[in-house]
Design a protein that fits this description.
By secondary structure, this protein is an all-alpha fold. Helices cover 77% and strands 0% of the residues. The longest helix has 23 residues.
Length: 185
């Protein structure tokens, strides 16, 4: 395993930002090297391939969502945990309208990618979907998986539409509608 360094961290930050804004396929190693101000030849010291960089990005994004879910899990009531999850898109609605969801957009793109990264495409969404299902199960809902699919679909849909319309208010509107739906359960 290559040692951790400032260059490696800069490469990952640049790759994460570029992959979110341009997409995985459109982002080249040269783009990442230039954006991070790391010579292209040095990139190969830290990552052998673009797929290796993407695996690290997937790990970073999954760890970030797990941290958010851990924070939300601190609430005593499962419905409050889900409300906590719904608070997050409001804090990043501008970013969602500019680039879409970091989990959903990469998951979608990798699901169409022929290579070793394809199986990872489901991991990005599954971590949220499984956690949401656990909350509905804790609420005693027999259709917990279907409810989880609905809530996560709402989150992904709002991100997609906010991005397509370049309108952060879509996120605010849809979070409020999703809260109203959640309150009826």
């Amino acid at each position: 395993m290559p040692r951790t360094s400032d260059k490696r961290e800069r490469l990952l930050r640049s790759a994460d930002r570029l992959i979110l804004s341009k997409g995985f396929r459109q982002t080249t190693l040269a783009d990442i090297a230039e954006d991070s101000r790391v010579p292209l030849g040095n990139v190969y010291y830290y990552f052998k391939t673009k797929d290796d960089i993407c695996k690290s990005i997937i790990d970073i994004r999954i760890n970030a969502i797990r941290q958010l879910l851990e924070q939300c899990s601190e609430a005593d009531d499962p419905q409050d945990r889900l409300r906590c999850l719904l608070d997050y898109p409001l804090t990043v609605r501008r970013e969602l309208s500019e680039n879409g969801c970091p989990l959903g957009t990469l998951s979608y793109e990798l699901s169409h990618y022929e290579g070793a990264l394809n199986p990872s495409s489901t991991d990005l969404i599954a971590v949220v979907l499984d956690w949401v299902q656990e909350q509905f199960e804790a609420m005693g809902k027999p259709d917990a998986r279907a409810l989880a699919l609905q809530l996560v679909s709402n989150l992904q849909g709002m991100s997609l539409i906010a991005n397509a319309l370049k309108d952060p208010e879509v996120v605010k509107t849809m979070v409020n509608r999703t809260r109203e739906w959640l309150d009826t359960l």
